[in-house]
């Protein structure tokens, strides 16, 4: 991965393409990061849960939070860094933002290579203004802490094509129905049916990005009819699955590029060189450590 560094916050912004199936190992940054995908789908996971970045959704990742990425479909990825003391969003947890046409073009423009510093400064000023007005679009798969709830979630996710009632699920995992209902509310803040719908939409986004048809996706993700799937997906995502599929397969708009600032490299510049991309994750990379500290503890570069 190559990166654009700018003098405004000394936090790197990047533009790069990924093949379907690429995996970026668990890592963290000492700056905030906004992750946008102009084509394809990026699944982002932390200890708290999982989020999806796609052509109409960007994900805000706070500084110092461990996370990893998996790519679905050929993806054009734009990441924008924000210094920890200069964040346009007052949030301290991963957040999904709706991306309109102007935000999309600003994300792409701000990660172009070799932008003059004055032009980049103007673009970032407009971007920050628009981010402060962006709408939050929550679609999160939270990670269960209670082992009984975690077991129940795995059972559902292992076969989304089969509708499971809360009563059936409670019997299967060996817990009372009222207890399981309470666990969904206390840990996830929602009901089991709402969680299952979000889970199906989440996986449908991935299926569509990988090229599955709308009908096949509806069947695999447990909708009784294609029309029911279209209605639910459109209500959740603000567009039909067909329109989403077309956008996810939009031709790539980015490529490897590098732009160095006059200030040169810093500790915040290291992550793009340090994060390995491969089919299977290995070591975690702590991007908050200075270069010499990473070498001393044997973290892979």
Description:
- It is a single chain.
- This protein is of the alpha+beta class and 301 residues long.
- It contains eleven helices and eleven strands.
- Strands 1, 2, 3, 4, 5, 6, 7, 8, 9, 10 and 11 form an eleven-stranded mixed β-sheet that branches.
- Helix 3 packs across helix 4.
List the helices and strands and how they pair.
Blueprint: E1 3-4, E2 13-18, E3 23-28, E4 32-45, E5 49-53, E6 57-61, E7 67-82, E8 95-98, H1 101-110, H2 117-132, E9 141-142, H3 147-158, H4 166-173, H5 177-188, H6 192-209, H7 214-220, H8 226-237, H9 241-248, H10 271-274, E10 277-278, E11 285-286, H11 291-296
Parallel strand pairs: 3-11
Antiparallel strand pairs: 1-2, 2-7, 3-7, 3-10, 4-5, 4-6, 4-7, 5-9, 6-8
Helix pairs in contact: 1-2, 3-4, 4-5, 6-9, 7-8
Radius of gyration: 20 Å
Q: How much helicity do the residues have? A: 25-40%
Oligomer: single chain
- Kindly name the structural category: alpha+beta
Summary of the model, kept short:
The chain is 38% helix and 21% strand. It has helices at residues 101-110, 117-132, 147-158, 166-173, 177-188, 192-209, 214-220, 226-237, 241-248, 271-274, 291-296, and strands at 3-4, 13-18, 23-28, 32-45, 49-53, 57-61, 67-82, 95-98, 141-142, 277-278, 285-286.
Q: What are the salient characteristics of this protein?
A:
alpha+beta, disordered C terminus, 11 strands, eleven-stranded mixed β-sheet, disordered N terminus, about 300 residues
